[in-house]
Specification:
Helix content is 34%, strand content 26%. By secondary structure, the chain is α/β, with parallel strands linked by helices. It has one domain: Maf protein. Strands 1, 2, 3, 4, 5, 6 and 7 form a 7-stranded mixed β-sheet that branches. Strand 5 and strand 6 form a beta hairpin. Helix 4 packs across helix 5. It starts with 7 loop residues before the first strand and ends in a 6-residue tail after the last helix.
């Protein structure tokens, strides 16, 4: 009789990534990764958003993997680019308002990466980019939006939760809903089937 595989390890405490895996029926446990993302990003000036997201996802997965021999570890990261500028999570409500004012009327490129690592070695990586057309946002809308969504969106690149009032920021979205939520889920599920974590 074949032993059941050990559950996937998610190298994150991201509520949205955990919710996606739970809803998809993926058995997993979550372990936070102690990676200095700000320092890594400082070393990646001039690197595309998709590549930065992939490198950060890989760093998180490797960090957790080294402490958990033989376990399959998933790292994820998302990065927003608007008009050639990369954005981190807002550090304050005022900073969030600045981000939203900058996004107004522009197209946001949101890249979400997922990387699977075992014993410190990458076994699979994938990144997808969604394009979100931000409508013209008035100062009064930005204030009322943050009245309702702050501080929940402090943990969100792009200052929005698409499953909540963040959907009001956009005129159009091109790309996977899961990528917008923070993970290229369909590609990941295929990789997990290939790795034996999910039934084929």
């Amino acid at each position: 009789m074949t032993a059941s595989p050990q559950p996937l390890v998610l190298a994150s405490q991201s509520a949205s990534r955990k919710a996606m895996l739970e809803a998809a029926g993926v058995p997993f446990e979550a372990r936070a990764a102690s990676v200095d993302e700000a320092e890594l990003k400082r070393e990646l000036i001039g690197v595309s958003g998709a590549d930065v997201a992939t490198i950060l996802a890989e760093a998180k997965a490797i960090c957790v993997s080294l402490a958990l021999p033989a376990r399959l570890v998933l790292g994820g990261d998302s990065l927003v680019e608007v008009a050639g500028r990369q954005f981190d999570k807002p550090v304050s409500r005022a900073n969030a308002a600045e981000h939203l004012a900058f996004f107004s009327g522009q197209t946001m490129a949101l890249s979400s990466a997922a990387v699977l690592v075992r014993d410190g070695v990458v076994v699979w990586r994938h990144v997808e980019t969604a394009r979100l057309k931000v409508r013209q946002l008035s100062p009064s809308f930005i204030d009322s939006y943050l009245d309702s969504e702050w501080p929940a969106v402090a943990a969100c690149v792009g200052v929005f939760r698409i499953e909540a009032r963040g959907v009001q920021l956009f005129d159009a979205i091109e790309g996977s809903h899961f990528t917008v939520l923070g993970m290229p889920l369909l590609a990941l599920l295929g990789a997990l089937r290939n790795c034996g974590v999910l039934p084929a």
